[in-house]
Amino acid sequence: MNDLVIKGIGTVVSGDLDAPLVEANTIVVRDGLISAVGAEADCDADGITKVIDAGGATVIPGLHDNHVHPVIGDFTPRQRTFDFIDSCMHGGVSTMQSAGEPHVPGRPTDPAGVKALAILAHKSFSNLRPSGVKVHAGAILLEEGLVEADFDDLAAAGCRLVGEIGISGLKDPVQAAQMTRWAQARDMRVMVHTGGASIPGSGVIDADFVGEVRPDVAGHVNGGPTALPIDDVIRILDETTAHIELVHNGNIVSLGEVARLAQERDELHRVVIGTDCPAGSGVQPLGILRVMSYVASFGAVAPELAVAMATGNTAKLHNVNRGIIRVGAEADLAIVDAPMGSQASDALGALAIGDTMAVAGLIIDGQVKFSKSRNTPPATRTISFSV
Question: 304 phi and psi, to 5 degrees?
Fold first, then answer.
């Protein structure tokens, strides 16, 4: 039974842009789902013996990385690194979305091969959660020769993602648009690479390409590794319904500019956050935490809204029952605080001044994955785990 109680919470950040702060000091979890959020006296915790006293710390949803490039298991050939997913989990990440599996050694590029690889990756990570992290993999990388029936096969196998268009062989926007329509008709989420070339075989992709293809996500508009001109970002927001993505593996100056633009336009709901790891810049275990701090400090976005961009926004995009702290949602929760030595007094204050929050504990489906992060600084407050 994945039952527990978190009490003594100083601030509950919901992950919902429309109501980012919740008046509550207690969260109750039963069978891995949130069953109550509110004042301790009003929350039914009868029979639950596992208790966490947050000691006045902040609770947010587990972080949802919209952009990773897994292979099979917790290993990346790109950086020859084991346990990179576990390291990100120690940065508060409970869910990852694949933007494609291009780092597979000898990656096939024929239609049958790319389809088989996507199905393999999807089924592999469906059976294995490295360190408990929910990795949604099997993002097909488009190649010439794929036909509509291939997308039927992918959907039937459970694949729901199209990897970054532009990093594989298909470069023609008309063909990419056609395949995008096939994928979206089957409830698959489609991402387009934007900005400069990132790996051999990728290219420079601008607003014209995004406008032709009309994906669900314009990936790393702040650079992966080089950023789009801000006028292109404006065109994507004006001419498409796509989400725009901010990543760690990009241009920090552009990140702040795009965050300010989205806020001025009242379109923060269209912003999602990823790391784009493993990338040429390496594995980034604290990448989501850092992007949230950049959005809040350089972008002048309220820190609780920056949290929503890394949790609820992404969960809504991918239609999963997590990312927002509410009754009935999967109990993926992070206990966070100002890092020891910070000039801020709490987690949100730390984000606002550009500090990396301390992650004092992560819960996935009601199970405590750790009670002290090996990657973030220690928390200012003392959190007690009786689990």
Answer: -65, -25
